[in-house]
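Sequence in, structure out.
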Amino acid sequence: MNATAPTDPSDSYYAAHQKVYPREVSGRFANLRVTAAWVLLGLFYGLPWLTWDGRQAVLFDLPARQFHLFGLTLWPQDFIYLAWLLVIAALSLFFFTAIAGRLWCGYACPQTVWTEVFLWLERVTEGDRARRIKLDASPWGREKLLRKGAKQALWIVFALWTGFTFVGFFTPIRELAGEVMAGALGPWETFWTLFYGFATYGNAGFLREQVCKYMCPYARFQSAMFDKDTLIITYDAGRGEPRGGRRRGTDPRVAGLGDCTDCTLCVQACPTGIDIRKGLQYECIACAACIDACDSVMDRMGYARGLVRYDTEHALQGRSGRVLRPRVIVYGSLLGLLVAGLVASLAMRKPVALDALHDRNALYRDLGTGEIENVYLLKIMNKDGKTHRFVVSLTDDQDRGHDGESAHRLDPARPVFEVRGGEVYNAAVRVRRAAWDDDERDGSHPGSSKLRLTVTAEDDPALVASADARFFAPQD
């Protein structure tokens, strides 16, 4: 028996993608989205051009293994801060989702922000929603070719600019701009500029809502963070139903109707193409475009605003909601502790670090001069970004001679090492101690003792770091 393709579309397991043409709306939430987009895009495109102490203010210099954030320079040894930030970002997402749903998706997600820009460029070249639908349905001709070509040209230029800016966070952007102008862009810079530009072009220009609906994992597990006191975008069915058309000024109660005029503007304005009147759906990104669209209709009809609004399920049921709930308290407390801990850790972070490793080739050397010598490898890390001369000193509170002074000494007595900003400097130092006299061999001297080696910047005594080590000698 030969299999045949289903002739009825309802029999198919797959539905062809229908392009969404979001309607442009105005209102308080639209203004908020535009403001958020301007701020976020301004930060993305503007930060690489800022300078701080003669260098790029924000630069992730991977070859040099340095992350510059204004006056702060982080090193691979500071990787804990990156993990710390990721945990804070995750908890922030949980915290704000539990309170007010998908605010991140509607106002701050890069996919949302860049899609808004690409939609704006599409409106500039192709017109409003009705004209775009008509243009796509018309046969190819001179006007369609010019409009589509202009849109693609703007999209490509903007995407390449985005890719160039992204690479500018990792390669000094002024150098990068010079390489572009000279046609001498390196292979890796070229690859990442084109790759990130293409990703922006594809995601924001073509995939758009499909990223939110099918690719983004957040849409799938957001319900685990919702409860009936979470602020979400809702349609007040009790007030809006039964829906139906009517003339302006008609009293819906007399006509036996609800406040919903069934104009479908809320559906037309939705960037993911859903009907909010069918209830909360995972495709909703909480952008509130449907609220602005519905409020404009309510204003024209003379009805009260809020048929579609931010609200909670408990409020729709006439019950009082709770902002402070166990999950909100837990998320908020953990978030506050983590943020406070990160700020305190960065504030107390020392711009110099020291590691002291004992020479592995020999525990000790008997110099034949009545002294025992140990050799240590010091790793001095200057995180300050400026060159400093560091003086090495030695302290020993356990092992002292007859005169009460330390039995150990550095050779030379005052080693000094110049360490450039951002450099891990390896330096060898020698520590010596007099061998025990026969009168002192009473069995009270162990084979090892504790030392503390310290490095201090000559020009700034506040730049100091210490490391513990052990001195090995023949045991009594």
